[in-house]
Amino acid sequence: MKPINTNDHELLIDSLQNESLVFLDGFHAVKHALRFNADIQLIVCTHPQKLDNLIADYAPDVESAILEKCKIARTNVVDALRRTRSHWTGVYGVAIRPEYELNKILNAPGNIVLLENPYNFGNLGACIRTAAAAQAAGVILINGVSPWEPPAIRGAAGLQFAVPVVSTKLDDLLRTSRKIIALDPQGSPISQFDFTDDLIFAFGTEREGLSDELKRLSAITLGLPMQAGVSSMNLATSVGIVLYAAVLRNEGCR
Using an 8 Å Cβ cutoff, are 41 and 95 in contact? Predict the structure, then answer.
């Protein structure tokens, strides 16, 4: 395994600044990016023996693809590049950012997750990870933080390459024929809802909930039952409950 060179170092720097590139934060992000056909430009590891163990334990199916692209870098070199803490795996990568289209998501089979004003990278990443696991058609973001920042990639374990994720404006959803289902603590019980259609499930922030404008676009408002005194539920947890309620009603993932 060769050490990184000057061009590799510049590519790593560029991946944290260039919107056409994605910095893959951690081994699991690299693993998933490869499994879902990302265009990987470079893989870097700081501890080759740890990499071998990670491959053996979690990703023997992509071993050859990892080793073909991987080079060695000193820990302090990678740390100097980063805006977040080092990943415990010591494995990083650079990939071309995929170009997803809103209309393709809206016309694809499966349910869609809509997140309004997500502000926590880790929570956003966990929502994307859950959507990928439940085979959602896509994740739509209205405002909020970018899903391509390293902490969001870390939170999603790189599954932005498994499920389409787009950022758009609320006005772009005005013409969709899909029903938008708002999630709100005051909504109708989710246990009484029929999940047979492909839907858009809209989630707001834990603090503020959904905007009035998005609520007005929604066909119905559903609520998740919570124990008295509990003020809110974690966003990613709510997304998981709703998506898997739909999956179970429709007899499992496709």
Answer: yes
